[in-house]
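Researcher: Please generate the 3D structure of the following complex. Treat every line as part of one assembly.
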Amino acid sequence: MSILIDESTRIMVQGLGRDGSFHAEQMKTYGTNIVAGVHPGKGGSSIHGFPVFNTAEEAVHETGAECTVIFVPAPFAADAILAGANAGAGLVVAVTEGIPVLDMSKIVRELNELGTCLVGPNCPGLISPEKSKVGIMPGGIFRKGSIGVISRSGTLTYEVVNQLTLAGYGQSTAIGMGGDPVVGMKYNDYLELFEEDRETELVVIVGEIGGTDEQDAATFVKDRISKPVVGYVVGRSAPPGKRMGHAGAIISGADSTVEAKVAFLRKKGIPVADTVEQIVDLVGDGLGGKN
Amino acid sequence: MKLEEFQAKKVFREYGIPVPDGTMVTTAEEARSAAEQIECPVVVKAQVQAGGRGKAGGVKLVKTPAEAYMAADSILGMDIKGFKVERLLVDPAVSIAGEYYVGITFDRRKKLPVMMVSASGGVDIEKVASETPEQIFFQEINPERGLRSFEAKQLAFQLFKDKKKALASASIMMKLWDCFHGIDASLVEINPLAELEDGSIIALDAKIVLDDNAMFKHPVMEEMRLPTPSEQKELDAKSHGLSYVQLDGNIGCMVNGAGLALATMDLIKHLGGSPANFLDIGGSSSPGKVIHAMELLISDSNVKAVFINVFGGITRCDDVANGLVAALQEIRTEIPLVIRLAGTNEEEGIRILSEFGITALKDMTEGAREAIRLAEEGGDS
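Model: Done. Output below.
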C-alpha cells in the first residue's frame, strides 16, 4: 500500500519541454506507468515510448490516464491544470513554479467541485518508492518502507528522505505539497490518507516559516491521528517580511515563525527535530515507542 | 513587490477609489511649490515601504509653503526602519471625523481572498487582530464571482449606521476588490479609510503588495518598481534566476531549493556559525546561473567562506559542477569553498569537480562544519 499513487496508476505528462521531457524519461526509467504525454503541436508523435497528444482531453480519452503531472511554464500552467482536471484526471500534480496566487485560488475551487486532488503547485511531486514516481525527485535515494513524508519544500524533502533511507527507514509515500501561499492538498489531507494506509507506521512533516499550516496539522494530529508523527521546521535565520524563495515562506506575523510553530507542535505532543539528523533519531524513538 | 503610497494612490485613483489629490516630490523646493498649488494646510509624508512612519517623524502637518519646505528638508534623507527617505507625498490636509480599516488579502487556510474591515482604523491592524479580534469583520470572496454588492453592504453597515456613509464605503469596497483582482495583488489596504467632517469617505493611506508570480501579466506595474540598494541586489539576482536575501553573517551559502537553503542556514547557526545570506539557485540550473551566484556571494565583503550545498532533483549535479568549474575558471577568489553534492547525476558531478581538482563532500553536516572552520580561520587572518 501507499497513498495516491502506486505501480498501476496511469500517468500522463503535460508539457514536454527540456525539463518535462528529461523528467518524463527519469520517471519512466524509475518504473512509473506513463501512458501519455501532452504537448500542443507534438500530437501524433511519441517520446520515451509513450504517445503524445495535442490536448489533455484527447490523452485521457485515448489512454485512460488517471493522474497528470504538469511541467507547463507558469504563464500557461493554470490553464493546463484545468485542462487536465476537466479531462478527467483525478489527481493533478503541478510541478510548475510561479503560478499567480489569484489564479490558484480559482483553480483550487474548481478542482474541489470536480472532486480532483491537487498536489502543488511549485512542488517536486510525490513518490511511492519502488512503485511510482510522479515528479522530479531523484528516485535513487528512496526505499520502500513504512514512513510517510509530507513537506512544503523540494530539495529539503530529498535531504530528509536520504537520511531516513541511509538509516534503514524506507518510505510508503513521500510528498512535496508545494511552497506557494495557496496549494491544493495540505498536511491534513495527506495525514488523513496516511492514517488509513496500512503500510504507513509513522509520518514525518517537514515545515517552514510562513502561514500556519504546521499548527493546523498539529491540531489535526492531536484530534484525529493515532500514528506517531515527527516534525521539523526550517527558517530560524529568516528575517521578518522577507520572502525566502518560496512565495509562501515569509514571516508575516508572530504565528508564522519557526519558534511559534515548533512550540505549537510540541504543545500538541509532536516531537520536533532541530536538524535533519535528529529526524532520524526521533523516527527511531517514535517507532520504538510504538513497538 | 510593494508599491509606495503615492503609487498605490495612483492605482486606487484609476479604480475610482477616492484619495486626496496630492503630489509626489523629491526635493524641499518641490514640496514648497506643491504646497503653494494645493491649498494649505498640507501633510508631508515620507514615502518608504515601512509602517510606523508617523511615529518615526516621517509625517508632518504644516500650515504654510515655507513650513512645507522645512518639513520636507528634515524628512528627506531620514532613515525609517532601514529605508532612506528619497520621496515625499504632499497631500491636502483634511478634517477627520472617524478612521476605519479596509483590506483584502489571501486566507491561506481557506485558499481564498478575504476582505477585512474594522471600525478601529488608523492603527496597526495586527494589534487590533490580536487584542480585540471581535472588532474585525471578515468576508470570504469567491475569486471567480468577486465581491458582491450585498456582501460589501453587510460589511459597510458594520462600520456605519448612516445609510449614505455605508453605501459610499460599500462602493469603495467593491472598487477595492476590482483593484485587487485587476492587478493580481496579494494585499491591498486602506488604513485609514476616513470619514471626513463633511460626511464624505476617502482613502487617506494606500498600501498595495503585488504578487511577484503575476508580474508577467502586468508589465506596467513592473515599471513602477522603486528598489532600495539592497533590493536592487536581490532584483539583479532574480533576473539571473536566483533568489537572494542578504543577512549579516560570514558564511556565504549557495543552495538549490528554498527549503534546503533555510535548513542549511539553520544548520550553520545550530553548529555555532553565522550565515551571510539566503541564496536559492532554483531548479533548471545552468552554468551561467552558478557563475552569477558565485559573483554575488563574493561581492559581500563579510563572506569569509562559501558553502555550496546541492541536492539534485530538477537541478542536475553535473550542471552544477560544470557551472562551478566555469565560475572558478572565470572568477579568481581567495575565499575558501566547501562543496556538497548529492542526488541526480551526483557521480557525474563529483567526477567533473575532481577532474578540476575540487573535492566534493556528500554529507551536509560535515560540509557545514568545514565551512564554519574555514570562516573562523579567514576571520582571524
